[in-house]
Amino acid sequence: MTIQALYSAATGMNAMETKLDVISNNLANIETTGYKRDRANFEDLFYRQEKLPGEQDAAGRYAPLGIAIGLGVRNQSIQSDFVQGAFKTTGNQLDIALNGPGFLQVTNPDGTRVYSRAGNLSENANGQLVIGSASTGRLLEPVIQIPNDATAIVISPEGQISVQQPGNNQLQNVGQIQLATFINPQGLLKLGENLYQETDASGPATQNNPGQNGTGTVQQNMLEASNVEPANELIDMITTQRAYELNSKAIQTGDELMQLVAELKRS
């Protein structure tokens, strides 16, 4: 076994460490509202070409095969899986689950717009709807004001928000939720805190009312659960551990062989 073989096995160990990091993060977020599981993708590295396929032999015939020695593996990408998560009934009138590909639009304190799948809404001190957070009050866009005397809040699948007020049997419309969609949602930048940011890879956001142009609808009194499947992640973890051990064993065996060769040369 050569130095190249040791290097190739080391890249395999590094790749499996990355995959284990991704799996661990998925499992850590198994109860995170609206979380989308990640998947580690890999690609083989370039090859040392000792003989190219199609080379001619002495008789002018083309060789059907070549000799290419691979130099290992590397991480190609970490890809998010935007498959719909299951719905959990909460009974909270400000909880909404997004049934479809849309994202809620929220504004950071600095004015930048970010996006979220987590529909655990709250009211701030001014009665405006915000994304539920103990650290930052991010306003829902468009801004929706809930009257102080509202006794009930009704959110339709199309995102219309109505309230019941004392002395009035009719529901009063106070706002309209709009959802954003992207040509390539996997190109969104993950910020943490259940937030995403638009990038050149995702394309610009397209705003629509829920139920229009394939945006999806909203379901009140529910939240979208994480789409992590524990059994699948555990199986991935076991296979990743075995792959790491095999690469580690290859390095150990290669080191022992190199020591043996060195001793033979000295003798």
Polypeptide structure, described:
By secondary structure, the chain is an alpha+beta fold. Among the domains are: 138 residues, no CATH class; 33 residues. It is built from 2 helices and 20 strands. The strands form 6 sheets. Strands 7, 8, 9, 10, 11, 15, 16, 17 and 18 form a 9-stranded antiparallel sheet that branches. α1 packs antiparallel against α2. The longest helix has 37 residues. The radius of gyration is 27 Å and the shape is elongated. The two termini are 20 Å apart. The model has no long low-confidence stretch (mean pLDDT 91).
Strand composition percent: 25-35%
Mean pLDDT: 91
Low-confidence stretches: none
State Rg: 27 Å
Q: What separation lies between the terminal Cα atoms?
A: 20 Å
Major β-sheet profile: 9 strands, antiparallel
Summed up, the helix count is: 2
Considering DSSP H and I runs of 4 or more, what fraction of the residues is helical? 10-25%
What's the β-strand tally?
Answer: 20
Order of helices and strands: HEEEEEEEEEEEEEEEEEEEEH
Assign an overall shape. elongated
Structural class: alpha+beta
Give me a quick take on this structure:
This protein is α+β, with helices and mostly antiparallel strands and 267 residues long.
What are the SSEs and their pairings?
Layout: H1 3-28, E1 38-44, E2 47-51, E3 67-70, E4 73-80, E5 87-89, E6 96-99, E7 103-107, E8 113-116, E9 121-123, E10 129-131, E11 138-141, E12 152-155, E13 160-165, E14 168-176, E15 179-181, E16 189-192, E17 195-197, E18 206-208, E19 217-220, E20 222-224, H2 230-266
Antiparallel strand pairs: 1-4, 2-3, 5-20, 6-19, 7-8, 7-11, 7-15, 8-17, 9-10, 10-11, 12-13, 13-14, 15-18, 16-17
Helix pairs in contact: 1-2
